[in-house]
Amino acid sequence: MKKLLLTAILAAACLIPAIAARTAAVSGRVIDEKGTPVAFATVVLLQAERQAAGMTTEADGRFVLKVPAGDYTLRIRYMGYETLTQPLHLTEGADLGDFVLRTSATEIEDVVVETQLIRREADRFVVDVANSPAAVGKDGIEMLKTAPGVWIDDEKISINGQGGSKVYVNERELKMEPAQLLAYLRTLRAEDIRKIEVIPVSGADFDADSSAGIIKITLKRRRDDGMEGSISYSTSQGEWSHSHSPNLRINYHEGRYDLYASAWGHFADERGLSREQTLYRTSDMSLAAESHLKERASNWGGKIGGIVELNPRHSLGAEFEYWSDDEERDTPSQTLIRQGAGELHNRSIYNTDDQRRNYSATLNWIVKLDTVGSTLKLLADYTRRSSWNDNDNRTIQTGPGTLRDSVYRDASSNRYDILTASLGWEKAFSPKWQLRTGAKYTRNDMRNGAEYRYLKADAWLPSTVEDYRIDYTENIAALYAVASARLGRFGIVAGLRGEYTRTEGKGDGVKQDYFSLFPNANLSWSMDKTGKHSLILAYSRTIQRPGFWHLTPRRTQISDYTYQSGNPELEPAYNNQLNLTMVLHYKYSLTVGAGLTTDGFGQVITSDPDDPDKLRLTSWNFPDNDLYYASLSLPFQLTKWWSWNVNATAVRLAQRTEIDAPLERFNFFNCYTNMTFLLPAKFMLELSYFGQTTVTMGNLTVSPRHELNASIKKRFWKDRFTVSASVKNLLDRDDRFEADQPGFIRTLDVSQNWGKRSFQLRVSYNFKSGKSFRSRSVESSASEEKGRL
């Protein structure tokens, strides 16, 4: 039956008749008065003043547009040049030659921006960052916030409210923990980004562990023989945080060789304050605690890679990446416990030292099978992640007739080895249909252990918290096939992925041995001949494997009576996603969809089974965890100098945290909007707002969040030097977390740097030499696996 399903998918694509309307694939090149190619100029074809097709030019100034043969008006625009308008009669396969843009005699008054910042393709949203004046001076995080359906907070990036989204840069996944990922994305310059793609429903060619969608960032094409790069520095200063972030990136190309290297860092001193109130329903006890956090973080890394073209068909690439993360935290805490007429006072100090090291190596071999895009790829990756955590704690407890001085410590170590190998074949049978097939093998090896001790009479003795040792190996083998085709106004993408998983050593000899099928399908329909208005229907089935840190039962003390730990008994979750998107005028879009999840996991607060007075923050499998959403994207160009972008998402969550618990439903809403004003002398002013209503997930409720930011930017020296000054979180708000359970009510008020006002300064310089070339990078096969780190 499984073989018949795969055969049926491939046969359906292969038998699509080629009866699409005849189109004209016209090409040309845009140059300036000196004959230099103009990269990222906006080229559109108009019919009766309505856009029929458009794109931005490549690094060599070339463009290719596909439209039905007929009469059109060609319009080419680029900042600093006069607009070129020319009537055309197009026939199939026409080469229009060179178009010369002339330097504008005026500044911003003659600049008209009509680039469509956001557009919808068959299975994804595309944010065209290139040639967008609104992008100047922004970083990667700020640009992602403009992408439809993307949510970003200081802990994670998600699509339509579904956590765990994967992030790629130039086809390679960023293998970092959430805080490091956000820090790295802030080092990316919008001027270096060509486009951002948001894939809400991943296809079968991605690992089945991609339930929360894919975000792909493609950097611009650069120089031919020569070197180019950028160097930047940013700093953030506020009452609660002081940080410094340098970044360096270099690309070099000569003949058949591409070499590249980058280095980045994030160094910060942060502090925070939390106040906890807990009322226990099963007794007359109450708890009030206050904790002060002081953290010093040193986060840095770099990578180096190269690609050599052995001949016009074969290329070989290799890349090595390393990053280091060190964090030291001191958390003094005071707790007052009232029970009846008695009071108990705790004064504690928690000292934490976290160290993480990551090594990744990638090797790939790519063969071009023909001139229309068919390729054969062999990719291999190895990653080792090692971490060490040491906690030294002391608590002095006083009360009527009570004096207790406790000294205790714990030490844990974690090591993850990930090996992946994949073989992929992409065949373009014609411009109208393509096929992608492949196989992949993954081996995840996990080694975790911890010891807990307390001091008594100058001797360290085993604690009441049990030591643990968890070692297991996970093997995943996969086969996939994806076919895509065009039939007139219809576009079809259909795929099927099969994965076999075998796990040994997890949970006292418990083994996992299972095979699963993961289909996906995507159907798009153009409501008019030019594709200006369209409808897209998408479906996929995916698996969500718990992150490695979710599976580690390491105990981390948050306050005297609250701690966090993982859950090694977590099982994978299965997710079915279905959504429908309507696109108007290429760019305005509305998406409605649902994500139906079985055994989805999330964080909950529960009483410690051994000490009910203590609370534990951990992860569980939820029997039901269904998400329904509507996402709206509205990019406006109000005037020549004023652009406005609005992204809004409404979510309805239906969840059941335990089998015998009632089904609960929660609604929440998220909105991000920003305005950009182009001012004379290449100044830019930007205002942005982020708002989120009350969010409940698991048994945790997060209070509403509001952020208001303002920034001003200026470009110098032929646009190579950019200075940006901004104020973040003008509203200066705290966060509140609540847990209302049968045994207790807990409220936690948190003041930390992500919600407090800060001032940021960013400077960057872009250097280059030589002719124009396309920057390349080594592709990786270890995407979703490394994301679990």
Overview of the structural elements:
This protein has 789 residues and is mainly beta. It folds into two domains: 23-110, Immunoglobulin-like (Sandwich); 118-787, Maltoporin, Chain A (Beta Barrel). Helices cover 4% and strands 66% of the residues. It has a 22-stranded antiparallel barrel. Strands 8-9-15-16-13-14 form a six-stranded mixed sheet. It has a four-stranded antiparallel sheet with strand order 3-2-5-6, with no helix packed on it.
Helix count equals: 4
- How much β-strand is present in the residues? over 45%
At CATH level 3, the topology of the largest domain is Maltoporin, Chain A
The largest β sheet comes out as:
22 strands, antiparallel, barrel
First and last CA, distance:
35 Å
CATH H-level name of the largest domain... which superfamily? TonB-dependent receptor, beta-barrel domain
Overview features:
Immunoglobulin-like; 66% strand; Maltoporin, Chain A; 22-stranded antiparallel beta barrel; mainly beta; 45 strands; single chain; 789 residues; disordered N terminus; 2 domains; globular
Per-chain topology:
Layout: H1 2-14, E1 23-32, E2 42-47, E3 50-56, E4 62-68, E5 70-77, E6 84-90, E7 95-101, E8 118-120, E9 125-128, H2 140-144, E10 150-152, E11 157-159, E12 162-163, E13 166-169, E14 172-173, H3 178-185, E15 193-199, E16 214-219, E17 223-238, E18 241-254, E19 257-280, E20 285-309, E21 314-339, E22 342-368, E23 375-399, E24 402-430, E25 433-456, E26 459-462, E27 468-487, E28 490-506, E29 510-526, E30 534-544, E31 556-559, E32 562-564, E33 573-584, E34 588-607, E35 615-637, E36 642-656, E37 664-679, E38 683-692, E39 695-697, E40 700-702, E41 705-716, E42 721-728, E43 735-741, E44 744-751, E45 758-772, H4 784-787
Parallel strand pairs: 1-7, 13-16, 32-35
Antiparallel strand pairs: 1-4, 2-3, 2-5, 5-6, 8-9, 9-15, 10-11, 11-12, 13-14, 15-16, 17-18, 17-45, 18-19, 19-20, 19-44, 20-21, 21-22, 22-23, 23-24, 24-25, 25-26, 25-27, 27-28, 28-29, 29-30, 30-33, 31-32, 33-34, 34-35, 35-36, 36-37, 37-38, 38-41, 39-40, 40-43, 41-42, 42-45, 43-44
